[in-house]
Amino acid sequence: MSQAHALLNHIIRPVSLALGEPHLIHEEILLSAATLRGFDPFAEDRDEGLGVFGISPTLHRQVWDEYLAFEPDKASQVRGFASQRQFLVNPDAELITNTQYAAAVGISALQWVRPSWPMPDDAPALSQLWADLTHIQERRCIARFQKTLEKLCLQGTPDNLFHPA
Questions:
Q1: What are phi and psi of 113, to 5 degrees?
Q2: Which residue(s) pair with 44 in the sheet?
Q3: From the CA atom positions of the chain, what is the Rg in Å?
Q4: How far is the CA of 144 from the CAs of 35, 112, 151, in angstroms?
Q5: Of 165, 122, 164, 162, nearest in space to 10 by CA
Q6: What's the Cα-to-Cα distance from 24 to each of 46, 55, 62, rounded to whole Å?
Q7: String of DSSP letters for 68-114
Q8: For residue 52, which of 65, 35, 69, 64 has the smallest C-alpha distance?
Q9: Which of 4, 55, 78, 162 suits 87 as a labelling partner, its CA being 20 to 30 A distant?
Q10: Residue 158: pLDDT band by 50, 70, 90 thresholds?
Q11: Per-residue pLDDT averaged across 120-132, rounded?
């Protein structure tokens, strides 16, 4: 089983289901973000975010302060993915050490901006959406992300990427 297949089927999709809103956009964006970062859960680059999905501390706080604070049931579900002690000591470290929690935050960020979602096959617009959320400004990085997303969008679903017909 590839790292991408494992991440999709054991982290992204189950977390999305647990949060009650599975969607192809969650899968496409988070899987592409992980691919761009080499599936490294310990990735730490302040310019490109933290952990396997590249979520910045700023976005992490925004999701909590501007979205989850007004969605108590969803906030409780997201908090349930965090470790008990570490989250209280250093919540941003959870983005690095806890891939399920990082996926829950990434999915919550996407749910927060749902009215601005493009179509699931619009790789340039999906790339820009994630770049805006994660504050990626380097054009080269956005272009690499878009190229990765295009592979998923052309296949129709992330599963088709790993199980061609």
A1: -100, 20
A2: 50
A3: 15
A4: 10, 25, 11
A5: 162
A6: 28, 19, 23
A7: GGG-HHHHHHHHHHS-HHHHHH-GGGHHHH-HHHHHHHHHHHHHHTG
A8: 35
A9: 4
A10: very low
A11: 85
Between the alpha carbon of residue 102 and those of residues 34, 36, 56, the distances in Å are 11, 16, 10
pLDDT score of 105: 97
For the entire predicted model, the pTM comes to 0.84
Contacts 24+ apart (CB under 8 A), 8-11: 8/158, 8/159, 8/162, 11/99, 11/100, 11/103
C-alpha distances in Å from residue 31, one per residue of 69, 83, 124, 137? 26, 23, 16, 20
Read off the DSSP letter of residue 115: G
Query: H helices within the chain, ranges in order?
Result: 3-7, 13-18, 24-36, 57-62, 72-81, 84-89, 94-97, 99-112, 123-134, 139-155, 158-162
